[in-house]
Structure formats: structure tokens, C-alpha cells
Amino acid sequence: MTSPTGEKTAAERRASRRGSERRPSIDPWRLVPMDKSEHIGGEDIFNIVFVGAGNIMFGSPEGPWNHSFRLEHKLGPRMKVVALIDPAVDRAKETLKKKCNSFVVSAYKDTRVCKTLDEFRETMTAKETPKAFIVGSPPMFRGTLKSGRDVEAQILKHFPGVALFIEKPVATGPVEEIKEGYEIAKMISDSNTVCSVGYMLRYLKATQQMKKIIEDNNLTVMATIARYANAYDSILKPDWWDKAKSAGPVIEQGTHFCDLSRYFGGDVDMSTVMAHSLEWHENAGRLSKIPIDENTIPPENRIPRVTSATWKYESGAVGSFTHLTALQGYNYSCELEVYADGYCLRLVDPYQSPILYVRKPGDDHEAVHRFADDDPFFSEVSHWIDVIEDIEEDPDSATILSSYEDAVKSYELTWAIRLASERSAKAKAAASAGAAMKEVGAA
């Protein structure tokens, strides 16, 4: 409730800044690079629990992700990782050993490795009470209400009021479980829990500059066109190539650009989603440098090489997305175009060196905006921490751009695309089989 003086309470301030539906953007110049920011003030300990000891949490040569590194900078000496939860205990201990042999030893010297959340809960001391959970375990093990895959619900039950940061996608289970994701979203909202989902491309300066142009000029988005082409010979995880384990490239990998499309276009009318795919067995889908033995994967679980989808937003605007497993090398090729009356906003290479091309009324040439030293991974955790800490000096600067419910909507879109492409592939196969039978009959 509002205080007697008419000022907002801490809970009201956090609520007003929590979701993208309430405050959909951040002034791009408030997104400060990590090397130009100072760790947050205060002297009290900030206890964190890490769920998952993998690459997203501690980094890898494959990409820039590394939540622990950003949190160490944001929280400084206040940060204490009270537990690292991962069933792969030996790997977790080896990771902790490296941290304890570094300059951030104070954050990890007392960290306990636990196989499960229950183990931590049952052995936790009052001193270890967490202020936040970072959930970076594989998505196939979370995002549902089923035992063993319900870490979010368990945290909400046993640690009420403790903030959550959850990696995307929110899940990669069967499509029937999407409704459970919405139930988790309601639990988070009803409990007034601070929660952010890691769609870091929303926090790019270039993305926020696009939002600013749209808002400043009172524009209505007419269309979004997204393309994501990976460098497949550097994708070494066998599970990624198996739809039964990764849910397929659109859900596991294309989720970023489906989410970014929704960030500009709004909610999608799921009944309008249509898609086609280039399958592994078709002539055009034969790849020359697959880094794993695809013969070990059942044919029905092998991933498509290309998926191309279109849909209508509830606003009436049109969206499209194409995912390609086609390039070789290291760098991916990714772009997003957003169209409005008189405007084209084109975001290029958001993962490596984001460039924004802007065409506007009165000028047929594109203005080029470059954003050096931008780190959306740091921006997303920095804003999440500021909301938790209820930074009051400048309330507009701390905003969570992806709520759990919003993330579930992006997840639902990726599943709709996969299912639509599979329907069209089956229809084509049935038509081809029918044509072949007719030829045999005619002979």
C-alpha cells in the first residue's frame, strides 16, 4: 500500500519496474558497460545460490555468457555464493576450486556443493539464507510442476520472497507442458517475487535505441523480419542435434529472435503461425561438416536444416522468422528488421558487434549507429540486482525487461513454429507418397 506521505512503498516501486508490460524500455544511455560501472554499494552480505554449474553460469570458449563473472563485478565483496547446486558434483567442485584460486575467493570459499535443492534446504543454516537464486540448469530439467523438474515452484514454496533469475528458454519439455509454465508465471506474480528471465538481447543498447525511436515518434510496428543463421560445425554437443533432447533449433536457439520479435511486435495470434522446413534427408539439406555422428540419432529426431515461419500479431502486424543451420566457422549471421510508417530499423550482428541501421522519412539513406563495449549480459543482471536492492536514487534506471510470463509466451511461439513446420513436412511427405502410388498404379 502507499505510505501516508503519498510516496510509493518499496514493494510498489519494485512492481512498477518489474515487467516489460509496465515499463517496456530503458533509456539506452543508462546501459553502462561493466568496465565503466562500480560495484553496488552497501556492506550487508548478498547471499546467492547458483542452480547449475555449467557454461552459462561460469563461462566457456563457445560464447560470452558467464553470469558469475558479471555478478562478481556488480556485487563486489558483498557477494557470497552459499551453495552451488548440481548433480554433477565433481564438475561443480572443480569449478569452485578454480574460483577459490582466483581473486574472487571471498565469494566462494564457503560455498557448499549440493546435489539437489532439497539437500541445500534441509542442511541450510540461518547464515546461509539466500537473497537470490540464479537458475542456469538445463531447460529440460525445469519449467514444469512435475517432481524433479519443478525447481522454480520449489524455490517459491520453500524460499518465499527470494528473487529469481532464470535462464531462457524457460523449458524444453513436451508442448503439453506449456500450460504449467503459465501456472508458474502466475505463482511468481501472485507472490510478488522479483523475477527476471535472461533474454539479454532486450538489454542491448541498439535494441533500446530502436524502442526509443518507436516511442519518441509514436510509431506502430507494421512488421518484424528476423533471421538467425548459425555456424553449425562449431556446435559440438550431440544433444543439440537431437530434437528429442534439445527440442530442436528454433526452440533451443531461435528463442532469442522469436522473443526479440515479440518485444517489438507484441503478443502473437498463435492460430496464425505457419511454417515450412528443409529436412535433413532432402537433397538441399545435406551438410558437409556436421561435427557429430548423426547416424547415432534416430531419423525422426534429426533436426531440420532450415525453418521459415510467418504469423500475425494481435495488433494486426505481421512477423516472420527464418532459422538456418547452414554456415560454417565461428560467427553466426543474425538480423532483425522492424518496419513502421516511414521507418525501417535494422539490427545486425547483435551477438558480436551490434550495428543499427535506421531509415526514416525524408532520407532514403540509412543512418548507421554503432555500440562499442556493450554488454547486455551485465545489463540484465545489473538491473535485476538494482530492482532487488530497490535502488531509489533514480527509479527509472532499474527495469526488468522480461518477466516469466512474457518468457513463456516466447517459448509458446517457438513450439508453435516447430509444430507448424512438422505439419507441413508431414503433408508434403504424404502428398509425395500419394503421387508415387499413383505412378505405380499407372504403370
TrEMBL record:
<feature type="region of interest" description="Disordered">
    <location>
        <begin position="1"/>
        <end position="28"/>
    </location>
</feature>
<dbReference type="Pfam" id="PF08635">
    <property type="entry name" value="ox_reductase_C"/>
</dbReference>
<dbReference type="InterPro" id="IPR036291">
    <property type="entry name" value="NAD(P)-bd_dom_sf"/>
</dbReference>
<protein>
    <submittedName>
        <fullName>Putative oxidoreductase C terminal-domain-containing protein</fullName>
    </submittedName>
</protein>
<dbReference type="Pfam" id="PF01408">
    <property type="entry name" value="GFO_IDH_MocA"/>
</dbReference>
<feature type="compositionally biased region" description="Basic and acidic residues">
    <location>
        <begin position="9"/>
        <end position="25"/>
    </location>
</feature>
<dbReference type="InterPro" id="IPR052515">
    <property type="entry name" value="Gfo/Idh/MocA_Oxidoreductase"/>
</dbReference>
<dbReference type="GO" id="GO:0000166">
    <property type="term" value="F:nucleotide binding"/>
</dbReference>
<feature type="domain" description="Gfo/Idh/MocA-like oxidoreductase N-terminal">
    <location>
        <begin position="46"/>
        <end position="186"/>
    </location>
</feature>
<dbReference type="InterPro" id="IPR013944">
    <property type="entry name" value="OxRdtase_put_C"/>
</dbReference>
<dbReference type="InterPro" id="IPR000683">
    <property type="entry name" value="Gfo/Idh/MocA-like_OxRdtase_N"/>
</dbReference>
<feature type="domain" description="Oxidoreductase putative C-terminal">
    <location>
        <begin position="202"/>
        <end position="343"/>
    </location>
</feature>
